[in-house]
Design goal:
The chain is of the alpha+beta class. Helices cover about 25% and strands about 30% of the residues. The chain folds into three domains: about 120 residues, no CATH class; about 240 residues, no CATH class; about 80 residues. Helix 5 runs antiparallel to helix 6. The longest helix is centred in the C-terminal third of the chain and has 39 residues.
Length: about 550
């Protein structure tokens, strides 16, 4: 039985697809697919390159001869054919080469476009999705590590946290005089009993004074008021003004720092505004808190509760050894995340001196007064004895002479005691002031003993490179799911590992589909937009 040739062939040009399968086109219905490709048939002088009554085209043969000069086919890159005698299915193919046969005949080498030919027969199964354009792109929704080169970080918004919370930014530091005393308004000192301060027992009192020139005068005055009680002072510590209080309390004083820089769509990163929201997450955009002693903590905006402000809490106990603690709130699912805290210490205790003589005099004056009174009485008694015995001694009376000598000895001893007491006073008076050792901290002196807040971002150059990469190749997913070829309104990139494709198609077509998905392919929703990444690829 002879079957007459009745296959149809259409030769197309300007089809934005090739056998690399970097791109393909999605279709909702077969008529849209057919209409598009047939609209791209080459036409010369109103005559389309459409051929009827062509011999049956074997899909695997990949060659066809047509009555067209070779020069007319060099600008064609695609063909469609239909073996109408055996069905109405359209086959789509890439034109790989055109060869001269004779002046009016050319041989075309073609390769079946697996994706377009079997687009409506495919059935995608679950597999590992390595990368994909996300259907939903929200800040914090896609956090799988990309392992990309980031370059050096730059700092955006910056704050010295404690200083920013101080009511007087020019005076954020206080010194605290600690001792077992209290002061009355007239400058007198009283003994101090321990109190419950900042949640702990404290056996000494703290007197906060601004660490300023005026504060220096106040400290010197208080130390001078102490007099004999100078030894009751323990130390002079330093601490941030906002925590310096002498009032007791069940808990240490706390403050809240409202973190600036929470990312939002449209914000610039080092001057560049990204299209992809992943660039507003770690490690491309985050903030750090550090201290002068090199403690450093990184915090990720996307881990803060979206229903609460981004805040840090800090507190300090009122004690001679200053220590401030800072921690995030509503972070990683915890209201107070103590695991992510950072400590600030290193506030020095300041050296000071006390008047040695005044302290010595206050401690010995009462005893020496009694000694002087007793010694004076002895001197008077000695003089009296000498006066009473003088007449007898003058007559040569032995008893009188003895009494006279005894009185002189007593008088001499009294004067010796007086001179000894005066010498002790003189010795104490010339002693230098007693120095009390302290510490040193250049950062504290510069008012930089603080928590340093910094927004960290990648540079604009790297942000642009990574943003373009995300735009074209989506995000790392690393999930097992069914590939979504229509995730966005313009294009969807998909790359799988171990793709699974079923459907009413030959096995070699299934395997080819799977290999293409594993290699990665971009699926476009509009044929005229293929390759145009400048378009707004909106969510559905």
């Amino acid at each position: 039985m002879i079957i007459e040739p009745n296959s149809k062939v259409w030769i197309c040009r300007d089809i934005p697809l090739d056998n690399s399968y970097e791109h393909t086109i999605a279709w909702g219905v077969t008529s849209d697919q057919t209409d598009y490709f047939l609209s791209k048939v080459k036409t010369v002088n109103g005559v389309p390159f459409a051929f009827n009554n062509v011999s049956y085209q074997r899909v695997s043969l990949g060659k066809i001869r047509l009555q067209k000069p070779v020069n007319d086919l060099y600008d064609c890159n695609y063909m469609v054919f239909q073996n109408t005698g055996f069905g109405n299915k359209y086959f789509y193919a890439f034109i790989n080469n055109v060869e001269y046969v004779n002046n009016v005949t050319s041989e075309i080498s073609y390769e079946i476009d697996i994706l377009q030919t079997w687009w409506f027969e495919k059935q995608l199964g679950d597999c590992f999705i390595e990368r994909q354009t996300p259907a939903i792109d929200r800040i914090g929704n896609n956090l799988v590590d990309e392992g990309l080169e980031l370059g050096d970080y730059v700092s955006g918004t910056q704050r010295d946290i404690i200083k920013s919370l101080s009511p007087d930014e020019y005076d954020p530091l206080y010194m605290v005089l600690w001792g077992a005393f209290t002061l009355t308004p007239d400058g007198a000192t009283n003994q101090y009993e321990g109190e419950y301060i900042s949640g702990l027992y404290c056996g000494v009192n703290g007197l906060p004074i601004p660490c300023t020139p005026d504060g220096k005068d106040a400290a010197n005055l208080i130390i001078s008021w102490l007099g004999a009680n100078a030894n009751a002072m323990v130390c002079i510590s330093t601490m941030p003004r906002i925590f310096a209080t002498s009032h007791g309390g069940e808990e240490p004083i706390g403050y809240t720092f409202n973190v600036p820089g929470r990312p939002a769509r449209g914000m610039a990163i080092d001057g560049y505004t990204p299209r992809n929201m992943k660039l507003y997450t770690y490690p491309y955009y985050f903030f750090t808190v550090s201290t002068p002693d090199s403690a450093d903590s990184e915090y990720k905006y996307e881990y803060f509760d979206p229903n609460n402000d981004v805040t840090l809490r800090l507190t300090c106990n009122m004690a001679p050894d200053t220590q401030v603690v800072l921690w995030p709130r509503f972070y990683r699912g915890e209201m107070d995340n103590w695991d992510e805290k950072i400590m600030l210490a290193g506030f020095p205790q300041l050296p000071y001196s006390t008047d040695t003589y005044r302290a010595w005099l206050a401690q010995h004056e009462t005893v020496q007064r009694a000694q002087l009174i007793g010694t004076g009485a002895g001197a008077i008694a000695g003089l009296g004895q000498m006066a009473a015995s003088a007449p007898l001694a003058a007559m040569g009376n032995p008893f009188g002479i003895h009494q006279m000598a005894s009185g002189a000895t007593q008088l001499s001893s009294a004067f010796g005691n007086i001179m000894g007491i005066l010498a002790q006073r003189k010795q104490a008076e010339v002693l230098p002031r007693a120095a009390h050792k302290g510490g040193a901290s250049t950062m504290t002196a510069m008012r930089k003993q603080d928590f340093f807040f910094r927004v960290k971002t990648i540079r604009a150059e790297f942000a642009r490179i990574i943003d373009d990469y995300f735009t074209k190749y989506g995000y790392a997913m690393h999930i097992v799911a069914t590939p979504n070829l229509n995730a966005r309104t313009e294009w969807t990139f998909i790359k799988t590992r171990g793709a699974k494709v079923d459907g009413r198609m030959p096995n070699d077509a299934r395997r080819a589909w799977e290999q293409i998905l594993d290699n990665g392919v971009t699926v476009w929703q509009h044929a005229n937009h293929v390759g145009n990444y400048s378009l707004a690829n909106e969510e559905w």
